[in-house]
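QA checklist item 7 of 12: single-chain prediction sanity check.
[x] sequence parsed
[x] length recorded as 73
[x] structure emitted
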Amino acid sequence: MRSIDRWAIEERGVPGLDLMERAGTGVARAVERLAGASPATVVCGKGNNGGDGGGTWSWSAWRRLRASPVMRA
């Protein structure tokens, strides 16, 4: 995955923040389909994984889903 991210950023000019937001949106949509209105916890690790988790939580909040972020260092 890291090599694909690097290719998208360096060769295609896609900002890393956009990649994280897209990943987070994809995860949030999948969770919404599977869990519906059930509450969810978004666990965010360090580094880019944390950014993906932040994007997941952000999209979930925008959709007014019940999601709680947990930040792990």
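[x] summary fact logged: Helices lie at 2-10, 16-35, 48-62.
[ ] second reviewer sign-off
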